[in-house]
Amino acid sequence: MSHFRVEIRQRAEELVALYPRARSAMLPLLHLAQEQDGYLSDEGIAEVAEMTGTTPADVRGTALFYDMFYLEPVGKYVVGVCTNIACLLAGGEEMLEHASATLGCAVGATSSDGLFTLEESECLADCNIAPCVQVNHRYVRTTTPEAFDSLVADLRAGRLDHDVPSHGTLIRVRRSGGLHAPRAEVAAQRASAREARATRETK
Amino acid sequence: MATLSAPRIVSSRSEFADSHTLARYLSTGGYVALRKALTMFPEDVATEVDEASLLGRGGAGFPAGRKWSMLRKSPVSYLVVNGDESEPATFKDHYLVERDPHQLVEGIIIAAYALQVTQAFVFLRGEFALGLERVQQAVNDAYEHGALGSRIFGSEFSLDVVVHPGAGAYICGEETALIEALEGKRGFPRIKPPFFPAVTGLYGEPTVVNNVETMSNLPWIVEHGGAAFAALGGGRSTGTRLFALAGRVRNPGVYEIEMVKNTFRDLIYDLQLGGGVIDDRAIKAIIPGGVSAPWFGPDLLDLPLGQDEVAEKGSMLGSGSIVVLDDTTCVVRAAWRITKFFSRESCGQCTPCREGSGWIERVMYRLEHGGGRMEDIDLLLDLCDNIAPGLTWPPQQTTICVLGPSIPSSVHSAIQMFRDDFVAHVRRGGCPHG
């Protein structure tokens, strides 16, 4: 019985098929698991393990290495405020402090209504519009306390649902081509590679 | 005065709001270069890139043509594009993936053709949600347009491109860590040798790893010829380059300018570029190539923006990021924040990096926030020396990858250039800037 919804499971299977080895789909699949559940649930981890030919412990251990994966539930909106060098010089620390006050939660914590999780980010590569703020990894480009507050009001009111999908949804553009087209050639190439490897190993 | 006569090679569509669409791309010369490349022998395409002497734009500056020529002969090989841009204050690949994804895709197809690779992966930083969507859309459009998939534009050449999201780890910009992540594992850099994925890369097969900006230069090089590219710039630094200017300047941003013909001063002060320092303050220091690079004082502002020119003065042009620190900046705080970053991002495999970064960060923290001791300053130098013995540039290596030896750069520079500021922090029991 699949934990993934039908649509997520189908996308996950397509992703696995894209790679020469199933395990390569690990990060994309973890993003998908997070898209469904908002974080990495035990069930999601088990399904990723099954699909990548690994164990839940292995999946968990891999996921823990990466900042974007959460093993506990987080808010609908994960707000990241950068304080790295370029943002430091533009008031990133003050922005982080302000965000904490506005959202009513400490850095690293989730607001009591479960809507927001606040994080101190490392450089988000948008240093010309500093301090840089991302919500669910979308650049919101609010560089003043006032702009940040009106952003929060818009998020609360659901006015930005299109621009900022719920936490976990990363790539909304689906791959539409390719799988069927060069598959024969790629398969042939992989077969000859396997053969070459086998010859090498028997030597 | 900056020299701005060179053509814009990778940012030519910047004035268009729809620069990321296929329609705009096709109406501004898109896919002309690929059609030309497909009429050439693959090795001749590689020769053009070699003649352009295009240096890799990721950070290490290794000649792309030479990287290609090292590709071990094998029945299967891969092209991996590194778009994991995470070096603090570097944001030029972010610009390219969001603003001109088709140019990147065309560059990838050209490179794959030259290398005769039929499978390519684009590894993009997970935090680039919009960039991931735009590049995936560009790949979809390219399949639709016949520029990807089976028998591209009716030729014998077929290629599959997969867009692969990262998940938040600076270290995955290191090419062997990136390959590990692409294999679905933790992003632990691999032990060297082998030094080059071209020998043993993805799944143990020969793999070329090239940066996003490097790829984005290829359509122009194929269309205009390697010689035209090599005619721009100077010395080993040919062509133009995207510089990400940040910090205390009026107009921070991404600027494409000719290498060597322009200086740090041109980039920072020219009114069409950085526009000068905020409030016309004096420059205290600049970080010339990402936070892994040793700092320069204002005395080196007239140094040309060239790879060897910057290296000769003991730093690097690195990732093409330039951060301006003015005289209102607390250098202790700046160096502390940079060390905090490295401490957070160290993958933990090697002791000097894992322990050293945290130790330096804690000492820097107490200097900045109160509790620092006079002997801390020499302690910091000693710790730096333990990570990169001799504190030379380029640094000695005690770790698997170059993250470790990058840690001392900012702290060592700050102490060397502004020791008095450190002393003032100790005397005052914290930051005098408040």
Number of domains of chain A: 2
- Per DSSP, the total helix count of chain B is 18
Gyration radius over CA of chain A = 21 Å
CATH architecture heading of the largest domain in chain A: Orthogonal Bundle
What is the total tally of β strands of chain B?
10
Could you name the CATH topology of the largest domain in chain B? Rossmann fold
How would you describe what is shown here?
The complex is a heterodimer of chains A (203) and B (434). With 203 residues, chain A is of the alpha+beta class. Chain A has 2 domains: 6-71 and 171-190, Orthogonal Bundle (Arc Repressor Mutant, subunit A); 77-156, Glutaredoxin. Chain A has helices at 6-18, 26-37, 42-52, 56-64, 85-88, 92-103, 145-156, 183-202; strands at 77-82, 116-121, 133-135, 138-139. A 4-stranded mixed β-sheet of chain A has the order 2-1-3-4, with helices on one face. In chain A, helix 1 (6-18) packs antiparallel against helix 2 (26-37) and helix 2 runs antiparallel to helix 3. The radius of gyration of chain A is 21 Å and the shape is elongated. The N and C termini of chain A lie far apart (44 Å). Chain B has 434 residues and is α/β, with parallel strands linked by helices. Chain B has 18 helices and 10 strands. Chain B has helices at residues 22-27, 32-38, 42-52, 64-69, 92-99, 101-115, 129-145, 175-182, 212-216, 218-224, 226-230, 264-269, 307-312, 331-345, 351-369, 376-387, 403-406, 408-428; strands at residues 78-83, 119-124, 160-165, 207-211, 233-234, 237-238, 240-247, 253-258, 283-287, 321-326. A 4-stranded parallel β-sheet of chain B has the order 3-2-1-4, with helices on both faces. Chain B is globular, with a radius of gyration of 22 Å. At the A-B interface, helix 2, helix 4, helix 5, strand 4 and helix 8 of A face helix 7, strand 3, strand 7, strand 10 and helix 14 of B.
